[in-house]
Amino acid sequence: KPKLLMTPGPTPLPPEVISAMSQQIIHHRTKEFGEIFSRVNENLKKVFQTKNNVLTFAASGTGAMEASAVNFFSEGDTVLVVSVGVFGDRFINICKTFGLNVIEKKYQYGDVANIDEIIEIIESNKDIKGVFITHNETSTGVTNPIEKLARYLKNTDKILIVDAVSSLGAIDLKTDEWGVDVVVTGSQKALMSPPGLAFVSVSEKAWEFYKTSKLRKFYWDFKKYQDNLLKESQDTPFTPAVTLIRAVDAGLRLILDYGLENNFKRHTRLAHLTQLAAEKLNLELLPKKEYSSAVITAIKSPEGVDIEKVRKIMNQKYDIMVTGGQATLKGKIIRIGHMGYVDEFDLLKTIECFELALLEVGYKNFGVGEATKAVLQEIAKEV
Ligand code: PMP
Questions:
Q1: Is beta strand 4-5 parallel, antiparallel or unpaired with respect to 78-83?
Q2: pTM
Q3: ipTM reported for the complex, 2 dp
């Protein structure tokens, strides 16, 4: 039986995406590929909510995170990196690797970024040229309220770079309207496609930064990708991952047919159901409910429970993959993903098996079936 991936990526593939990948390979310098790629680019713009081109790379999300440091800055430039978890910390490491002067603003794992505090730091450090922040921190299940930060930075001479790897397409991010300069995402999460592609949108303001950036780049040189998108038959400067582009083409079409707004609502609802189940199980969320993510719910391990064992039972006995904690959160939380091609019934099954696995490790502080019932009753309200 294939595992049900209730993880924060990779996420399950819709049949349309799977069959899009089962075709003979086509050459990428052809009209046929150009048509597919142009459609992908147009649809990416819709999902990114931008009028600017979205650059496509054969890479995982981290590759595009690195590229977003390399393309806009020079050694010694001061940047502010906000971190609320593992992926914010990754941005700090990337920026340091390339010799940027990094001001770190770290929050405790489980906390949300305080935008007023961040704006104060920016106002008191005139040297800051760019700000990096994670939209949805997958490691802690926290969504940062980046709109206010983006709107503030829009009227300054600084750029905002956002890691939207686990949010884009599932959580609203109005790139142009809010004024986010660089948005990075990957194929394997809300876009319902396999791992292997990364996407980056670049604002006009960010292109001005590109012109003065002195960090070395070859494969990652954004202008090469932009130039190939300005050609009549769009393609990429180097051989693209043609099959994955076909997959994303199908994934994007499904999202847009369903409607972006509807997709945001659908994810919020899945999060609501998961939070409700946690409550009925007398389990605490890691973050406060008001900034708990729409795509992943991080639940604290109750005292004396081997939560890693719960995760393993769900995987080995019930074929449901959820994830544990990363870094310092290892063994302390369990994370239920509800991202992309999963529905209420996948979640219902996950909660049922979560109950059984909790019982198996000796956690008895709940009425058996109560969480499942609460979720089912919520679903029944819509019937
Ligand atoms: N940022 C966030 C918020 C993520 O969730 C992930 C993947 N879990 C990454 C970056 C890294 O992406 P990848 O594993 O595709 O390199």
A1: unpaired
A2: 0.98
A3: 0.99
